[in-house]
Amino acid sequence: MIGQRTTSATSKALYSPEQRARRDATVWTLVQGILAPLQFLVFLVSLALVIRYLMTGHGQEIATASIVVKTLVLYTIMITGAIWEKVVFGVYLFAEPFFWEDVFSFAVIALHTAYIVALLTGFTDTRGQMMIALAAYATYVINAGQFLLKLRAARLQQQADDRAAAQAASPQAAAEAAPQAAAEAAP
User: Fold this and answer.
1) Taking 50 as the threshold, does the pLDDT of residue 8 lie above it?
2) How confident is the model at residue 54 (pLDDT cuts 50, 70, 90)?
3) Which of 122, 144, 150, 167 is least surrounded by Cβ atoms within 10 Å, i.e. has the fewest?
4) Angle value at C-alpha 98, between 96 and 103, nearest 5 degrees
């Protein structure tokens, strides 16, 4: 089941209280929290190996293996991310808060898959395959940036919600928290 994209001028919050509770309760949040930095580490190692190969002509096998590993980690995080989205938002993909991240994820997957196809079919030489990998990696960096911005937005939303709850509970506490809130909101 793929979700429907809705647009609502009133829905600015990334998570509803119910969605936040599901996000915090599911093991899939932890899985994503482990896989995302793992994927980034694999990416950095692979990027270094690919650049080394392109600059020196040495290390083709290890560079190739690293791209395959990076692609497998990407596929894994995409599948587990879809499960996470289903648990939290009720749809496997394209939940409104993550619509554009999901759309761009498919470009990332398409380029990684194009690399695998080129590798298996010999569609292009090794240098061409490495260039496809670099294009895939560039889209991955953009997509990772999208998700990091979304993570920051979620953190800021949580802080704002916590302040609002504190203000509702105690106007005095809210007045004391206002300077800290301004400092936290600054980039």
Assistant:
1) no
2) very high
3) 122
4) 100
Rounded Cα gap, residues 53 and 174, in angstroms? 57
What pTM, to 2 d.p., does this model score?
A: 0.78
Residue 103 pLDDT exceeds 60: yes
| Cβ 169 vs Cβ 33: under 8 Å | no
Which position has the higher pLDDT, 183 or 111?
111
Tokens 């879809």, residue located: 82
Distance between CA atoms of residues 172 and 87, nearest Å = 38
| Ordered DSSP codes for the chain | --PPP---TT---SS-HHHHHHHHH-HHHHHHHHHHHHHHHHHHHHHHHHHHHHHHS--HHHHHHHHHHHHHHHHHHHHHHHHHHHHHHSSSS--GGGHHHHHHHHHHHHHHHHHHHHHHHT-S-HHHHHHHHHHHHHHHHHHHHHHHHHHHHHHHHHHHHHHHHHHHH-HHHHHHHHHHHHHHH--
Give me the residue spans of the domains in the chain.
18-164
Sign, CA torsion 148/154/157/161 = negative
- HSE on the CB side for 117, CA within 13 Å? 8
If we measure between CA atoms, which residue out of 108, 113, 104, 101 comes closest to residue 136? Answer: 108
